[in-house]
Amino acid sequence: MAIKHFLQFSDFTLDEFEYVIDRTRLIKRKFKNYEPHHTLLDRTLVMVFEKNSTRTRLSFEAGMHQMGGAAIYLNTRDSQLGRGEPVEDAAQVMSRMCDIIMVRTFGQDIIDRFAAFSRVPVVNGLTNEHHPCQVLADVYTYIEHRGSIAGRKVAWIGDANNMLYSWLQAAQVFGFHLHVSTPRGYDIDPALVAPGNSNYTVFASPSDACGGVDLVTTDVWTSMGFEEENSARVKAFDGWIVDEAKMARAQPDALFMHCLPAHRGEEVSAGVIDGPQSVVWDEAENRLHVQKALLEYLLLGRL
Ligand code: CP
Ligand code: NVA
Fold first, then answer.
1. Closest of 238, 242, 241 to residue 255, by C-alpha
2. Which domains are present in the chain?
């Protein structure tokens, strides 16, 4: 049987996400009640980080411990990956010693090559092009607060980055509509959008993109790996801050999300991220719960 990976959001069907979301509810409830949930006893996750992380590392590592398994952290700095060992070789070795692998790296081609040589499931913990685990947590958080996301409107304000491409895939899978506003010169790369995806509309004005939406979301202007572009980006993104005026264009009960880490005063005002519509702490916590369900599904299938 083919190994199931989670390399981008579109790797799962709606039916699979619905199962994972149901399972997340159970896993989260048990966690809150201090009930053991040791479905991954003796299983080992290897986490390969080529970029920094707080939430992703913590949620995967804590999640494996909570399910009775173990997690091992490797990074480029002190593993042989940083000294040029081919990813194909690393994948073959790691996948003989552990049960599942999470990779955070640069180009999507790297994780695709890694997965092609892995005997075990590979999970994308962020690449330049995709961040599917975060968007899974975000969709779960929306559903937890407001019910079904199908038919809803979501505004993406800011960079055409990994988070946006995962949101675009999620819109197609879950049947919601994305309003996208990126500054000129930082537009969507059509090569990264599925040809049949009609679940989004591009807006020149970020304020207009927020009009009537149920959820407003943004992210840093400069993603990891693009640091040398930072000063040009700060100029180009002027006006793309999610502030109280933009939130006022959305539905009165609209939520605000940000995958974190955030820069108050750049992509979001302190008043919005720390205000009553913001669910960023639930969003961060839900990384733990959805990823436990995801790891369990990839390793054990439907229980
Ligand atoms: N949101 C997110 O992936 O955070 P980290 O970079 O801290 O893992
Ligand atoms: N777009 C950001 C997300 C960080 C979690 C980055 O890639 O740096």
1. 242
2. 9-131+285-300 (3.40.50.1370), 133-283 (3.40.50.1370)
Closest ligand by atom to 224 CA? 2
Ligand (nearest to CA of 130): 2
Q: Give the list of residues 6+ apart from residue 247 with CB closer than 8 angstroms, or none.
A: 210, 216, 254, 256, 272, 275, 277
How many angstroms separate the alpha carbon of residue 1 from the centre of ligand 1?
32
* Ligand 2 center from residue 68 Cα (angstroms): 29
The answer to whether 173 touches 235, Cβ cutoff 8 Å, is: no
Q: What is the pLDDT of residues 197-246, one digit of tens each?
A: 999 999 999 999 999 999 999 999 999 999 999 999 999 999 999 999 99
Token pair listed for 73 = 């952290």
- Rounded Cα distance between 11 and 145, Å, is 25
Please state, in angstroms and rounded to a whole number, the distance separating the CA atoms of residues 192 and 302.
30
Instruction: Establish how many alpha carbons lie within 13 A of residue 3's alpha carbon, considering only the half-sphere containing its beta carbon.
Output: 18
Q: Which residues are catalytic?
A: 104, 131, 134, 219, 259, 287
pTM for this model (two decimals)? 0.98
CA 34 to chain CA centroid, Å, is 26
